[in-house]
Amino acid sequence: METAFSQWKRQCLNKLDVSKKGSVDEDIVHIVSLLNSWDNYFTTSSCSGRLILIDGVPQSAEVHKQNCVWLFVSHQKCSSDDLMAALAKSSGDAVMKFEPFILHVQCRRLEDAQLMHSVAVNSGFRNSGLTVSKAGKIITAVRSTHGLEVPLSDHGRLLVEQDYIRFLVQVANQKMEENLRRIQRFYQNLQAALSAEQLQKLQIPDTPSSQQLQNQKAPHRLETEQREEGEETNKASVYKRRRKRGQQVGTDCCNVDADSSPPELEDCLDLFT
Amino acid sequence: METAFSQWKRQCLNKLDVSKKGSVDEDIVHIVSLLNSWDNYFTTSSCSGRLILIDGVPQSAEVHKQNCVWLFVSHQKCSSDDLMAALAKSSGDAVMKFEPFILHVQCRRLEDAQLMHSVAVNSGFRNSGLTVSKAGKIITAVRSTHGLEVPLSDHGRLLVEQDYIRFLVQVANQKMEENLRRIQRFYQNLQAALSAEQLQKLQIPDTPSSQQLQNQKAPHRLETEQREEGEETNKASVYKRRRKRGQQVGTDCCNVDADSSPPELEDCLDLFT
Where is this region: Disordered (chains A, B) (predicted)? Predict the structure, then answer.
């Protein structure tokens, strides 16, 4: 019998891509392929990072992207001429945004999601987090703090000079480069973590937990529930190694517990860039 | 014997606030107090939302906030004169940011964290997520997509006109207002969810799960592990009701599985504002 997870995975990978673009972005095809080739993971949505210009309804504080006119989208570095040409078409309140890499990975077990989260945070994606639905869907969202959001026109009237647009595009392109470096770091850390995981499985082939991988579970039961203490101990060293880069602590939150563990503090620290 | 969670909670609440500001922000004192008054929750860090102006090192794509000069911080609406006065002190690359409400809530059990996540997403904080550490710390981060990040000076040279600063402060103040509305919504939804939870406990006082609440658990074991099917069923209706507002699905991601459940899709949808 097929497990609920395997069924979700099969259905998801056979389904139509309903996004605007309709395909996986070039710069992250290798990551999506790697994850989908592993039994315990599959990706449900992704974007490699993009620079967008959206024309919103003036004076509306609650505008959804889908109600706006998309004047420009680029998943690569672009020129200020490209942006200026798109801006010329604005008749509302245009806003330029740089949105970094985002990836949603559905995971078989809670510990798979923890591994994914750990890899993400250690690769610089510090706004990453898990969702666990009642139906048993466990998803890690890989998210960065590394954005830009700049109002550029008011009722179609340009608010800034061309020099500013040039500076802004330069900043956005730097962010695009940094975003790609983080994607690369994420890919390398992911490969290392998955290899370590596989190696561990090969070293302890007959533990109850490896047998459990073969079991057919109800979707709402986390397989960690029946995991043995022994494997937890084996895994701890790998996990700690992966966590090392996340050990910094800072104090620019408004209210912070002195001993909070790094990931949650880091969330609030943010990168300035 | 004190549970690990109760110990963490006691230690955290007795500890020094190590943030820059050193206290909980005025607009969220009621939320922090409410959460800390419940046995299954405590807050580890928070910020009600703020407008900041930071002077960064020029040409550096990887600047941490703590290495920058903070020229201005306001947790309330502000005037363009305030921002202009602060900008005059810039000697590097100044960036204005609006950062919305952020809250980290440590939760006793995974299902408590799920409830918190559900309340957060339904209140408009769609970048919220969980972290589960190996030590057993389960934390929900309440996060919004509702920001601004605008470069304003280059090596101390102002890049925009005063008119633009006025427009920008107006946009930031609108976001501050919307942020407060969401905080209020979060508080109301939180009260409702916690009351429903309490009511349910009173209605089924002798189920194994309510007995489990009294048990002393090792920190790395999630108490949901031993939860009975019966209570899962009882809880489902409350959960579904709370999830209703999150049912919209959109298509502006780059690559999206047609049937992904709302929270993860919403993460990628973002609010334009």
Answer: 206-263
